[in-house]
Amino acid sequence: MVVRIWVVEAEPAEADARSLLTPAELSRAGELAREQVRRTFVVSRAVQRALGARYLGVPAAEVGISRACAHCAHDTHGKPHFTAAPELDFSVSHTGDLVVIAAATDTRVGLDVELGNRMIEVDEMTRVLTTAGERRILAGHRGEALRTELFRIWARKEAAVKLTGHGLLQVPFTALSVDGPVVRIDTPPAGWPDEAVHLTDLPLGHGSVAALATTVAGPRTEIVTLPRVADLTL
Ligand SMILES: CC(C)(COP(=O)(O)OP(=O)(O)OC[C@H]1O[C@@H](n2cnc3c(N)ncnc32)[C@H](O)[C@@H]1OP(=O)(O)O)[C@@H](O)C(=O)NCCC(=O)NCCS
């Protein structure tokens, strides 16, 4: 079982990526005032379209992508999915100028990437993010290693709630324990998977700390860095 992961740096990739978007997406990109937000928006939407286009064999702008929530009636805050290929599960994360997408057909996937050099308030983050078991792990670390471990816990939790589509509004950080290879959850919300959610830390480079959640244990991961979004091949 393979999970394919593509990593794109938005700064050089944006120019070419625009040609993959729909007119509505281009118009929305034009409304985004902050340059980095616009860049990652363009590249994120483009990489989703490139993946769908390769899989379905249709032009990128014609790939149907739904963001309808599986857990409520809302039509924009759900886990994105291809309307014509629900069996191809994918998950996207962006941080700084990095856009990453993971995809697989034989497991559900959730991905989160955090930049390890982001400024954080370690004590406050430990308080809002961690469980007692995770704090025992953190107690063995100091300085940079402690920050990295905190980001690792953060990425693992976000990856889990992105696999299920619940997001962090439905499942607060402290309801999840990620100090082992499988996620433990206090009171699973409706729609939480019956099968175990497995965690894999991902060596993506670029100063990132990243985690992949899957419903199959021990996934093989193939990580490809793309200079241009259009270079994505299956
Ligand atoms: C999902 C969530 C944790 C992502 O956080 P974030 O800080 O935006 O993190 P990332 O940059 O790593 O991920 C962004 C990507 O997550 C994906 N995403 C958005 N909502 C998602 C969801 N519910 N489930 C899975 N993935 C989701 C999108 O692909 C998005 O990128 P895009 O907009 O460019 O397509 C956060 O947006 C969240 O908690 N949303 C709330 C979802 C919600 O309201 N749930 C209620 C269910 S009833």
Automatic annotation (TrEMBL):
Entry GO terms, CC: cytosol
Annotated GO biological process: lysine biosynthetic process via aminoadipic acid
Keyword Ligase annotated: no
Domain of life: Bacteria
UniProt cross-references to InterPro entries, sorted A to Z: 4-PPantetheinyl_Trfase_dom, 4-PPantetheinyl_Trfase_dom_sf, AASDHPPT_N, P-Pant_transferase_sf
Occurrences of domain 4'-phosphopantetheinyl transferase N-terminal (ranges): 17-105
Domain 4'-phosphopantetheinyl transferase: 108-177
Keywords attached to this entry: Transferase
An example Gene Ontology molecular-function term: magnesium ion binding
Protein name per the record: 4'-phosphopantetheinyl transferase superfamily protein
